[in-house]
Amino acid sequence: MLGAVSHPPRPPLLISGCRPNAAPFCVLQRRPLLRAFSTIPRLNSFHSPLIPKASVGSSEYVVETGTNVKFPRELRVPGCSGSLVLLGTGYREKVFAIIGVKVYAAGFYVEPSIRERLDAWKGKPATEVLGDCSLFSLILQAPLEKSLNIMLVRDVDGKTFWNALDDVISPRIKNPTSVDESALLTFRSTFQSRDLKQGTFIFLTWVVPSKMLISISSGGFPSNVDAEIESANVNMALYDAFFGESPVSPTLKTSVVNGLTEVFS
């Protein structure tokens, strides 16, 4: 995707206030809405101090238990300078006629060196970390690459997927600039005409806070960047939707927090 035109730096946004009590890729068991998948990358055994020892899975992957999707512990992401490591997993669920349906599983990857920037949270319990918005702001603002990797567990048309993203992005941008509007248009056009089948991979990668890369593939891991979103406001709004006060995937945010606290235990 083509990025928006350059714009003078804007003051960094803060993640919305948190409440302390706020609520590899894939082999899936057969379920009414799910098919089995077998596109699993072969990785060499990888051990990183960033990955919690108690993670479900093996030395090569972690299982997101709500969907049984397997996430590699180490991954090369299009547009990144090096390998990223898995910090946490979760799933997104939508309610249809009072029935909760899981739409996708997600894994959050970061550069291993982020561990060196989190000394201030060493020894803090998960409940305290979960309610500390400054932690997630630091992770976004840090000059480190991080990626939200999504794997669909049901068919979703591109327009529906984009509308779900826009529903959480646009309300977080109170006074969008022309740069923001251009970035949203690029974002929308990237997904709107796509037929996103079960098993599709979507990588949303923040290389810097003001620049996010989108990579999409229905045939295994993405190998190219499909679009660039160059808007600090849009990228921050999306990040806040996953790691702010009301995350669209509470399981993902909680898993990331647990990963961080286990690293420092």
Automatic annotation (TrEMBL):
Q: Read off the Pfam families from this record.
A: Chalcone
Would you name any one GO CC term? chloroplast stroma
Which gene does this sequence derive from?
A: LOC105041019
Record organism:
Elaeis guineensis var. tenera
Q: GO terms for biological process?
A: fatty acid metabolic process
Which InterPro entries does this one have? Answer: Chalcone_isomerase (IPR016087), Chalcone_isomerase_3-sand (IPR016088), Chalcone_isomerase_bundle_sf (IPR016089), Chalcone_isomerase_sf (IPR036298)
Q: Which domain of life is it from?
A: Eukaryota
Q: List residues of the Chalcone isomerase domain.
A: 68-261
State the similarity comment: Belongs to the chalcone isomerase family.
Q: What is this protein called?
A: Chalcone-flavonone isomerase family protein
Q: Write one Gene Ontology MF term.
A: intramolecular lyase activity
